[in-house]
Batch of 3 targets.
Target 1
Amino acid sequence: MNLELRKDNIRYLYYLLLLFMFFYGIQFTGMAFSTSKYCLVLISIEAFLIRQVYIRKDVIVQMFLVGMVVFYSYYISNVRGDGDMQVIELGTTLLLECYFIGSLLANILKYRGFTASKFMDLLTAVFALQGGLMLLMLISGSFRDFIFGATGNHGLNQFITTGHRGLAISWHKYYDFSSFQSIGAIIIALKYRYSHKLTKFDILKYVLIIFSVITSGRTGMIGVVLSFALFLWSFLYVRKKVLRYIVILIFVPYMAFESLSIVSPKVYNSLSAKLLPWAFEAYYNYVESGQISTESSDYLFENFYFDVYEQTLLFGDGRYRDGEEYYMDTDAGYMRHILFFGLLGSVILVFSYLRMAFIGIIRGNSKYSIIILICIGYNLLVHYKGDVLLNSLINMRLMVVLFLMFSYSSVFAFENDEKMVEI
């Protein structure tokens, strides 16, 4: 029995680290590729060894839709654009890395006995591990120097400027990373909604995830607020141990923050002076002026969305970048897609994500299947700020993996060979 328990713990730790490296795509100094690429090899080998190399037919349809986007991107970039291959490369990555390898990963996790609840616990542990490492980087200068040195000082300039951003051990570090991490907070709130209890480990994970969100980008605050709303809804529904959990969820993070004044006064003063005014700028502006706004959101609305010619609106200009800058100096996701492949390419791409959400609703195999709709809807909202549908691998991987894990029903079950395509 002890041997089996040890095997289970080792297996859990392995998949925890595998998902961590897969999602965050860390680029270590001296490595030719990011950790995601090495994970692709490990996943492929394991799927082959346990004979789990197959793809569902509904995933083939998803890949066909993305393939249409890739084909049109190639066409428009060569006919009207400057031959920029970046969108083609991003679309191909979505096809191969997210859908194909993601399918193998889902097959493996199902085969290894990860139920919906177990997978949610594993996933939130991945988010919390990142938050814990970020907290350690903030507090320990030597650990921070080691990590920055090992990752080519990626994000160091932002940390020097702000005192809190750029800490994530990830290729993505800012607004899309923040929204990605906040999904973990939503998952923990959903777990309480359905199980009506939180373990001490859940509470610790929640606090670490909130920390990682607040210190990386304000976009993730939307997810944090949604998690609070889910908790409130659950408290009103369950009506037991409410005061206890309210105290835990509000005062534990507060006490943890205040304890920094003893553990590391320098860090505490820096966060009080820089992080809080920045993270809660929208709230402060609402109190002062009655308007919910931030400097960055105002700049986004005023400068990143503008009128274009009808032909550009419909078919795009086939240009994603202009040298080192984005084409026409816009960073907004929807605008960048309109400028590149117009409404034609944009509609196909958005439809592929909406189709995943639709399948997740009608063919979900778990009470947690709602997370597919939440995650995709959230990213469609965040796409207004930046390109997360094609240029944020961290969120693309998450959306597809959640779809693959939680949209299996009796119609698309593993054992139904008629609904599978074996490779």
Note: The chain has two domains: 26-113+309-409, 114-281.
Target 2
Amino acid sequence: MKKLSAPIFSVLFLFSVLSPLSAFAAKDVIPEMKECMAAHGSQEGYMAVLKKYCDPGIMRKAMGLLVIKHPYVVQTEEEGSSVCYTVEGVSVETSSEIPSDVVQVYKACWENGRVVSLEFFGAKHRPQAYVMPEMLECMRSHDSREKYAKVLEKYCDPGIIRQAMGLLVIKEPSVTRVEREGPVTIYTVQGRTVGTSSEIPADTVQVYRVGWKGGRIISLEFLGSSAAARRN
């Protein structure tokens, strides 16, 4: 039997239809959910829909999910008289509590045309790619300028060191992607900045790429904010 599908909308909190990952057709999404999807264009419209379908306690939870974009239903189930949607979506950099560019998971249950429960599960687990010890040593040295400079001297030529020192303001870096191009291993890294640089704004998620070959850094590319990196 041919599976039905529907386009994935960029929606807030509750609002999603099928992606290719979903086993349910658009007809399984209740009309109230469809109305919510149509209201995602503005914060005012979003709040108006929440007031229509949620009690104050649910509304407070729902507002925290405003940063989750491109959600899609991954499971629909009936729990007694309720219909529940498990939803995944990618967060953007507008919240200090929810990290950006991470797939987040939550569950919304409806009953008699109202949202009766909302459960936030947090980030979806993804298997951690292997990161070489030398790269881990570099990332863990961002808390001290002296330590960072010594680590760079171990693994970088002078030209790379000058570039890398500008990344010291990026704290708690983490690898988001690992690629291999022949003998070169390339790590895409993101971290949140602190207010110690006039060139890189504070409290934003910044992205850079590091190329390693033979135990040394051979390339370094600063991609800017995560929002800019997604556009490029």
Note: The longest strand covers residues 68-79.
Target 3
Amino acid sequence: MVFGLTEINYDRIAKKIEKKSSDLRLRDFYAELTMVSPTFLPRISKLIEQSSSAERKLGAHSLCLGDLKSLTMNFYQELNHAYPEQILSILNSPNTFLRESEPTQSSGKNFVAQLGTMWLIELHPSTNLSGVLTLPHEYCHLLEQRIQEQKLPKEECIGEIATMFIEKIFIDYLENHKVISSKNCQTLRDALKTTLIDDAKIIAEESFVFNSFKQPIDGLQLKDFAENLSDEKKAKFINRIKKMSNSRAENGAVQMRYVIGGLVSEEMYYEYLKNPKDTLEKFDFFLKHNAEMSVKDSFKLLCGDEYATKLGFDLKTESFHKSDKENIVRIN
């Protein structure tokens, strides 16, 4: 058995990790950001144990595609009267190829893509409660690129901040307009936090492994390290190595967008509850200018100068990943 405790092909595992880490963008994320550990997540770290042990099952909604469209556009109308017109200018453009369907039990692909001047838009929400967030999320991508004349955010890892903030305040909109019960809205909020924690754990586990060994990682390094662990810790370590080398974690650079988006939007949401006007002004500025903004400038704008304290990590900080290698097996 490849990943068992009695017979482990460390060379094979190391080759998988090294092949994946040859992606320069992935290297940049791991080099530029400290590990996003669940223990560093502000305000929600206490939810880790209960989220992982008793994750709530989301119920279903009964909204049709037309209902979801109307709700989404009315929501954007309340935020800013110009937003719906900008979204519709893309949806109604002859250069837009739009494929959409009524909500189904299993969600299809949902994305916004561009090929030159052409727009490719896939909208296939699910009847799962989380499906109500699909349209506001994807429409935010449209809005962001329409405002900036189809320019993408300068840094890939800030590409989901706006959309994930929209998700949070759209849930409030649904609750305030009694579209969905308060109980179901809270279930949705909890699900967003649980997803953030799960994504952060995967990034943290990958980062620990990546930064704890000399590059390139070889089988001998893995074997020497694992053999000095107790059987219990060895099992945990091997589990993390499996995650590092399986297909789910291959898009770490992409997944980092959702961790960053979750962390920053969480902080924005708390500020929004206290001061919605100022927060929405910052959001609007971010939508208009993030194609020219650095990661640090984005963090400062949306979370203030103390962003490192609020978010739980800083840029180009090495103190965390230089700590004892056994920290790899201490993350739950």
Note: The first strand starts at residue 96 and ends at 100.
